[in-house]
Amino acid sequence: MPSYSEPPTPLRDDDYLYTSLETSSCDDIKHIQSYVKVSSKRNTVLLVVVLEFVKRFLIDSLRCFARSNGGLILDQYRAQIWPVLAHRLVTSAEGENVDDNDSLSFMSESYSSVASSLTQDTEDSLRKHPEWHQVELDVHRTLARFPPNISDDRRSTLQCQLTPLIIRVLRTNPRFRYYQGFHDVCLTVLLVCGAETAFEVCRSLAHYGPFRSYLLKSLEESVLKELEFLYVILSRVDPHLERVLREVRLGTMFALSWPLTWFSHSLNEYQQIVRFFDVF
């Protein structure tokens, strides 16, 4: 007699398959295969929902971790966490998360956009973009940006991936205009995340991150206005240095590449560069 004090043991998928194969005729094989497909899809969807819930619930903790001493520590962690942080960027205008869709739509849109981009954007179509030539020239000058321990073959592969990656990002908004320095941003993300994930991260940074205004406006209307706050910040942090810089009339052009490339063009150590990218 079954016990009513505890629930029955659930039947596992492999138990069901084993029992069915033992008791069913050959005519039922299609039914079994259909069950396995549905069950596998159900488990995959459930896993996606659970993982996305955890990521969203812990987003503040991930941000604190990224901004703490040492940052995200290893590129293996960055490759998993950067896409999450990029998708949950806070807009300066709204002061809230830019994506309020439910977990399933959030994940499905992300992966479908990657798939469609990789399948629809052939190299021939990308080469027709008016910015292709300039991007390609800048990419060829990125030799010094690669970590010293990277092989020549790996570097060549990444350079071949970088130009199409940038053009794909630019094509997501017809108003985007490439600026010299955006290739440094995309290269850093590509080195950490790989080509497919890098597209999603760079697209989020371009649409919702600090680089949006640089891609939409002229330098005079965007970054140069931001640099006007440099001396204001210095006056709070180091008043003596601020006075010296004003006295020699140094201006702000020396810091132009800092926001445009998120310091990746100015720093020489790879670990310093990715550490800065932890806090985007």
From TrEMBL:
Q: Which domain of life is it from?
A: Eukaryota
Q: Which GO terms describe its molecular function?
A: GTPase activator activity
Any one GO cellular component localisation term in the record: endoplasmic reticulum membrane
Q: Which GO terms describe its biological process?
A: endoplasmic reticulum to Golgi vesicle-mediated transport
Q: Which ranges carry the Rab-GAP TBC domain?
A: 72-280
Could you list this entry's UniProt keywords, alphabetically sorted: GTPase activation
Q: Which InterPro entries match?
A: Rab-GAP-TBC_dom, Rab-GAP_TBC_sf, TBC20/Gyp8-like
The name this protein carries in UniProt is Rab-GAP TBC domain-containing protein
